[in-house]
Amino acid sequence: MLNLDMSVFCQDTLTNEVVASCFARGSDQTYLQWMLNAWGWTVGVALTALFVALVVGSIVGTLRTLPDSPWLVRFGNAWVELFRNIPLLVQVFIWYFVLPKMIPPMRELPPFVLVVCALGFFTSARIAEQLRSGIQALPRGQRYAGMAVGFTTPQYYRFVLLPMAYRIIMPPLTSESMNIFKNSSVAFAVSIPELTQFYLQAGEETSAQIPIYIGVVILYVISAMLVNRIMTFIERKLRVPGFVAAGGTGGH
Q: Which residue, 212, 213, 210, is CA-closest to 13?
């Protein structure tokens, strides 16, 4: 029979005694406190990696649409092909085991930073591709209009193309923001105490894999749904009434 005793979360992690409030005092902690701490690590990894992905992905996606800049376009294309086509777990191991041996200063970096770089760069390739598609979905006339009023290339990207392109890619950007919480589970491979690491260790200690699994899944769902609601709210606020993206290669 399946063990669905949820009181495991109220057990002290050292003595296995049930704590009445499910929150131990002092240096002790219950499995619930441990899980919430692991959730904090998951959220920290995911949000930091999302920030890195948005910044780097925006730069690379813009480079891929620059007119008269073939080398920058090639660099952007190479970035996307490199980071999108190597499995995420492999990238984590490269950042954690390979690069520190090749670049000694990286040995001083904490695993948190290395995982954020791996997850952020992996996701940046996907965001870059989405932004490229968004820019190229804009009517060609928007670029010409920016040039007509005297904008330089950086200016018409900043004030004309990018604001509209981001509005177009908000739905897939929402999906990527949700996926990054799921993908943050790879951090367990380098011993970051996030939710997947908690599930593996706590499940083994308590032999209550099913209740632990249910708790972890609930927190992943809560995280993803909160991101979905926030991104949907932003999309609604940024929506331009009556705007429909017409085919037109706005970035070329």
A: 212
**CA separation for the pair 29, 236 (Å, rounded):** 42
User: Strand, helix or coil at 11?
Assistant: strand
Which tens digits make up the pLDDT trace of 50-106? 999 999 999 999 999 998 889 999 999 999 999 999 999 999 999 999 999 999 999
Taking the C-alpha atoms of residue 106 and residue 117, their distance in angstroms, rounded to an integer, is: 12
Q: What are the tokens at 157?
A: 């990207």
Place of tokens 């990054």: 180
- Is the pLDDT at 245 greater than 60? The verdict is no
- Termini Cα distance of the chain: 63
Strands (E) across the chain are located at: none
Task: Output the six-digit token pair for 21.
Answer: 């409030």
SS3 at position 175:
helix
